[in-house]
Amino acid sequence: MFWRMVKGALFRQKGKMAMIAFTVALGASLSTAMLNVMLDVGDKVNQELKAYGANINVMPKGASLLDDLYGVREGGGVSDKYLKESELGGIKTIFWAFNIVDFAPYLETRVRVNALEDEIKLAGTWFSHHLELPTGESLDTGMVNMKNWWDVSGQWLTDQDTDGAMVGSLLAGRGGIQTGDSIRITSGSQSVSLEVKGIFHAGSDEDEQIFVPLPVVQELTDREGFVSRVEVSALTTPDNELSRRAAQNPKSLSIKEWETWYCTAYVSAICYQIDEVVTDSVSKPIRQVAESEGAILEKTQLLMLLITVLCLVGSALGISNLVTASVMERSKEIGLLKAVGANNAPVSWLILTEILCTGITGGVAGYFAGLGFAQIIGHSVFGSAVDIKPMVIPIVAVLVFAVTLAGSVPSIRYILSLRPAEVLHGR
Amino acid sequence: MGMLELIDISKIYGSVNALRNIGLTVDQGEWLAIMGPSGSGKTTLMNIVGCMDKPSQGAVILDGVNISKESAKNLTAIRRDKIGLIFQQFHLISYLTALENVMAAQYYHSMPDEGEALEALARVGLKDRAKHFPSQLSGGEQQRVCIARALINYPMLILADEPTGNLDEANEGIVLEILRKLHQDGSTIIVVTHDPEVAEQAQRTVVLEHGRIARIIRNTSPGPGAGPSL
User: Fold this and answer.
1) CA of A334: which chain B residue's CA is closest?
2) Which CATH class is domain B4-218?
3) CA-CA distance, A90 to A276, in Å (whole number)?
4) Ranges of H-type helices in B124-221
5) pLDDT, tens digit, 9 for 90 and up, residues A232-285
6) With an 8 Å Cβ cutoff, are B46 and A427 in contact?
7) Is the terminal CB of chain B with fewer CB neighbours within 10 Å at N or C?
8) Same-domain check for residues A111 and A242
9) Is there a single domain that holds both residue A226 and residue A374?
10) Of A256, A285, A314, at which residue does a domain stop?
């Protein structure tokens, strides 16, 4: 009889129940969408942030940023240490290989350009370099992907353009250099003429530099097979206390902590793994980028969590209003049940069962609608699908249950206080 | 000692004395009518006898038990086991069929039994309407379902609040005939009514005015089958 009454209430009051189910579905769908996006937003935001450049700098051990800081030149005996170009493919074979988005090596030197008086930094690099990895896989990596925000007038170089150069906009302006011009570059006793194929605006001190394919600088400086540094763009997990300790000294970690750290895509773990495959290298996170990424990610996740909580609170209030209104409408029916001998508990249980059945229906519908919303958010905001996380199912189930129960509290209180004489006889 | 005894009961709502010092005894198998103008205390008295309210003072003895001091939970149990309620506005559950409405009362009393519920509907002439919803039944039919629901748990006292108040003449006749049969079968019935014709069917009529018993009329010629006159 209990289920006949529940069924009767559910199927013969479709309009009211549909409204409650719709409210639950709305809350569940938004929660599902937000939770799925929130759990996936780390990778998505990381990928977005990767568009703004490298977050790891790999340098030879013992070398430093002396050139940047003090202008110490190669050949001066201080920073004359290099990485082997042949080992760079190993970067894509580390434990977190799939998190390495792109990397580009640089060999830098100071040169004279045309008749300009001061020396200009010339950087040899990979533009779009094809690599065959020891694992049998292949990839194309280099500046074109790493610096895709550059505003280039003319065209990007390819690795085969050994007679071409890309000139920074400030330098081009100062030297009156235009696309298609030929420039003469002199380094010591060696000299080479290159055609300017592109002038770029980077918005940094790179606008004062010239970029050419790596072999050009290697030949000019007589350092075939070497590079002076590598910029790496990697997807990373925001730092925490463990990663910060590891960054200072990995040996201070216990075995379990070390395994956790090594197997998590912390920027320090990726640096450590790069150092394992590139001989005599020291990888350093570019702190501003890495920390900004972490901060943006945390704020984005917090924002989505707050939206989820607000959705659930709104949903609970909606359910509460609808259920209370519905119960008040049915006060005569509830009074009648009490009059024929029902205690508070069975009547409350009857109403609660109806609401929970409606809530489950709304929750299931809302979950699937939420998956759709998550994909819409993924495609419209990040331009790719959002991964469906199975762990969201129990979370949403618990949330729907809790929100439905919380929303039912006022109506249950009303039922408990309802006296049959008041509703049946008006006293 | 009667089946129901009201001993000097009063009911006060704030500054309003709804009932004042009511004393009344109802015997087993008696049909009693309560009449009076609006505000005379009929409904209050009905609620107290029906275990839906408590007197402010005095005692209500039902089947030898003083129910005036019982908890709400115990009053619910007494109501469930001993009292059948018939309402002017029927109070049928709209989304349950006639049969299910009767079975709902069974469910909260003991175990629902479809056969028994059908039998109760048959007693009020509605067996063939068992699967109909209240909206598909006439007012008279709804009241008969309400009576079947009141009878299903074999109550010792049937309380009817204006049972014909919402019915036309034909249906009023049908409902009164059912009550007469119940009385003939030994049921104790208390009917609250405005209608003198309905009151005349009872053996005694208690007239309330301003919360007091103004007079008690012994009907010398209760309706056909109303049992021996007192």
Assistant:
1) B93
2) alpha beta
3) 9
4) 139-151, 169-184, 196-200
5) 988 787 778 888 888 888 888 888 988 998 888 888 899 999 999 998 898 888
6) no
7) N
8) yes
9) no
10) A285
Residues A172 and A35 in one domain: no
Number of H helices, E strands in chain A: 14, 14
CB contact under 8 A, B76 and A419: no
> What interface predicted TM-score (ipTM) does this complex get?
0.83
Do A37 and A374 touch, CB atoms closer than 8 A? Answer: yes
Do A24 and A81 sit in the same domain of this protein?
no
Cα atoms in the 13 Å half-sphere on the side-chain side of A147: 25
* A11, A340, A419 ranked by CB distance to B104: nearest: A340
Asked whether the beta carbons of residue A9 and residue B95 sit closer than 8 angstroms, the reply is yes
Is the pLDDT confidence value at A183 over 80? Answer: yes
* Position A50 in a domain: no
- If DSSP codes are grouped into helix, strand and coil, which group holds residue A239? coil
Looking at the structure, tell me whether residues A331 and A382 fall in a common domain.
yes
The rounded distance, in Å, linking the Cα atoms of A144 and A102 is 10
Residue of B nearest to A14 (CA): B95
Q: Is A136 left (phi over 0), alpha (psi -120 to 50) or beta?
A: left
Count of structural domains, chain A = 2
- Binary contact (B52, A4; C-beta < 8 A): no
Between CA A75 and CA A427 the distance in angstroms is 102
Task: Say whether residue B56 is in contact with chain A using an 8 A CB cutoff.
Answer: no
The per-residue pLDDT for range B13-43, each reduced to its tens digit, is 888 888 999 999 999 889 999 998 888 888 8
In a domain, A266, yes or no: yes
H/E element, B117: helix B114-123
pLDDT in tens, A115-168: 777 889 999 999 999 988 878 888 889 988 888 888 999 999 999 998 999 999
Residue of B nearest to A342 (CA): B108
Predicted confidence band at A52 (pLDDT cuts at 50, 70, 90)? low
Claim to verify: residue A256 and residue A315 sit in the same structural domain? no
Domain boundaries, chain B: 4-218
Q: Which residues of B touch A425 (CB under 8 A)?
A: 43, 46-47, 52, 161
Backbone angle region of B45, left / alpha / beta, with phi > 0 → left and psi within -120 to 50 → alpha:
alpha
Alpha-carbon distances of B52 from A54, A418, B67, rounded to whole Å: 78, 11, 11
- pTM, rounded to two decimals: 0.63
Q: Give the DSSP per-residue string, B47-86.
A: HHHTTSS--SEEEEEETTEE-TT--HHHHHHHHHHHEEEE
Same domain (yes/no): A125, A271: yes
Contact A424 B87 (CB under 8 A): yes
Across all residues in chain A, what is the average pLDDT?
84
Structural domain contains residue A216:
yes
Regarding whether A344 and A218 lie in a shared domain, the answer is no
Last residue of a domain, one of A285, A320, A339: A285
CA B211, CA A23: separation in Å to the nearest integer?
A: 49
Structure tokens at B144: 């008969």
Chain A: residues touching B (Cβ < 8 Å): 1-2, 4-5, 8-9, 11-13, 332-333, 335-343, 346, 419-421, 424-427
Q: pLDDT tens for residues A190-225?
A: 888 999 999 999 888 899 999 999 999 998 888 899
